[in-house]
């Protein structure tokens, strides 16, 4: 890893610098730091989403608040080269504004985001699902503490111990704290739901538009791993139970609160309704600790077991 990549890893420990972009022109922005997680294929997707969102937010009238985003990851990004974000204003209406952000690295488009902003209508009726009953954040342990305990367990190989300690160190330095609210919960219909408390570490009371960018960042944490867990795949296993590849294809967020504070604990529930053909789809809900449902998320990703498919027969065209 070169010096610039090491600096990016250090800068990523603060959420403010992890999301920071440099404005080059009216609609053109450039990343200032990029972070690649341990054993990952490229830059953390949540950082790309949030930097693109910061860029878009800087190009919209502040009277409009973000209410949804949809994005596609076209290829993995390298942490060694800055990403350039080009914002295109698609529509400006009386109630809604639509923008598109294209992310380019080394001359190739790597990511595209569509986002929509709305003038708030708090006088309209509202409805939400209830928050699950889980232990409070104060009753739960940090993820890095779970990992360190697991690394000292019986029958743990030196290789797995090393990997767990790498993950624990990464979690300790992350700008987002995570606590396991419940190992998992099986509903009456047989579906399995995973639940985590998450919050940004040591942040001041940012404005609502930036809070939503932080929320977009943390919405990608642990999400795709749910599909692997449902399928019984892990990176530690060997053979058909080994997780050979996981990578996000697309991600969507629907925001339903303009007062969310990511500096306080948020409950993120995750489930995987379907996984097949090397893909999995996840569905999530993010609640404040007071029970307000602030965002709904969906994601699809590549989730492949270490299984080789049938070899395709090469057909040689016959001569006339």
From TrEMBL:
One cellular-component annotation, GO: peroxisomal matrix
Pfam families named in the record: 4HBT_3, 4HBT_3C
GO terms classed as biological process: acyl-CoA metabolic process; fatty acid catabolic process
InterPro entries, per the entry: ACOT8-like_C, Acyl-CoA_hotdog, Acyl_CoA_thio, HotDog_dom_sf, TesB_ACOT8-like_N
Acyl-CoA thioesterase-like N-terminal HotDog domain location: 34-118
Domain of life where this protein originates: Eukaryota
Record keywords, A-Z: Hydrolase
PANTHER family associated with the record: ACYL-COA THIOESTERASE, ACYL-COENZYME A THIOESTERASE 8
Protein name: Thioesterase-like superfamily-domain-containing protein
């Amino acid at each position: 890893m070169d010096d610039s990549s090491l600096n990016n890893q250090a800068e990523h420990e603060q959420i403010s610098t992890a999301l920071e972009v440099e404005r080059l022109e009216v609609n053109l922005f450039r990343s200032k730091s990029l972070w690649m997680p341990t054993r990952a294929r490229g830059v953390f997707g949540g950082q790309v989403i949030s930097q693109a969102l910061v860029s878009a937010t800087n190009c919209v009238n502040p009277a409009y608040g973000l209410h949804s985003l949809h994005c596609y990851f076209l290829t993995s990004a390298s942490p060694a080269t800055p990403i350039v974000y080009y914002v295109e204003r698609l529509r400006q209406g009386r109630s809604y504004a639509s923008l598109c952000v294209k992310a380019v690295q080394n001359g190739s488009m790597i990511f595209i985001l569509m986002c929509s902003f709305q003038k708030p209508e708090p006088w309209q009726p509202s409805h939400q699902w209830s928050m699950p009953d889980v232990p409070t954040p104060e009753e739960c342990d940090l993820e890095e503490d779970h990992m360190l305990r697991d690394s000292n367990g019986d029958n743990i190989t030196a290789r797995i111990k090393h990997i767990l300690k790498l993950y624990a160190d990464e979690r300790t330095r992350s700008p987002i704290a995570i606590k396991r609210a419940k190992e998992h919960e099986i509903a009456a219909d047989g579906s399995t739901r995973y639940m985590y408390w998450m919050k940004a570490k040591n942040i001041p009371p940012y404005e609502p538009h930036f809070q939503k960018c932080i929320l977009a960042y943390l919405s990608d944490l642990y999400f795709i791993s749910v599909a692997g867990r449902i399928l019984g795949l892990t990176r530690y296993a060997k053979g058909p139970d080994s997780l050979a590849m996981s990578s996000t294809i697309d991600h969507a967020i629907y925001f339903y609160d303009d007062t969310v504070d990511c500096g306080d604990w948020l409950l993120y529930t995750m489930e995987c309704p379907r996984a097949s053909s090397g893909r999995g789809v996840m569905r999530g809900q993010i609640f404040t600790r007071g029970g307000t449902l602030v965002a709904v998320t969906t994601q699809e990703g590549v989730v492949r077991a270490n299984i080789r498919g049938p070899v395709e027969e090469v057909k040689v065209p016959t001569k006339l």
